[in-house]
Specification:
five-stranded mixed β-barrel, alpha+beta
């Protein structure tokens, strides 16, 4: 084999290896993506059926039913609701009427959660859940509040806790 043919074979082999590596990385990224959906989007069949995703909203008042480590509750975005089933220990901050994000799969209209995340503190709500609630309220016709930027407070504050109000820092 001539040196010219060897160089061409090495270049072609390198490009093939690079293509295989790129395909493997993209496949791994695609299989690990987890998208967020609100109960309204689940009701309108936008959520995947055979794939893991996240649901977020508020835990409906009076919907939590515990049986040992098995818990059933309902997540709402104030327009639609989705029943959730979870087997495990819930976070300490999990309460009715508070924000929640759960990851899992849809099974015959019931969201079977593998992980449940509760709100961060009294005024904070996950940005995805805040956007879903704002979007649902906009569809319902109650206040045309747009989605909040990631990391803002659910009470509409400009990044300050509610105790600060419009006056600024109380110090």
């Amino acid at each position: 084999m001539k040196p010219r043919h060897k160089r061409i074979a090495i270049v072609v082999g390198g490009l093939a290896a690079l293509g295989v590596a790129t395909a493997l990385v993209l496949n791994a990224l695609n299989s690990n993506l987890v998208f967020f959906y609100s109960p309204s989007q689940i009701e309108s069949k936008e959520a995947p059926v055979n794939r893991s995703f996240r649901i977020g909203g508020m835990v409906e008042e009076g919907s939590v039913k515990r049986d040992g480590v098995n818990v059933q509750f309902v997540v709402t975005d104030t327009v639609k609701t989705t029943p959730v089933r979870y087997a495990g220990i819930l976070p300490d901050l999990f309460k009715e009427g508070k924000g929640v994000v759960a990851q899992g799969r849809l099974d015959n209209g019931v969201f079977v959660a593998s992980e449940v995340l509760a709100k961060h503190d009294e005024n904070y709500m996950p940005p995805e859940a805040a956007e879903a609630l704002a979007k649902a309220k906009g569809q319902q016709g109650q206040g045309q509040q747009g989605p909040q930027p990631a990391g803002t407070l659910a009470n509409g504050g400009a990044g300050k806790p509610a105790a600060y109000g419009a006056q600024g820092d109380p110090r």
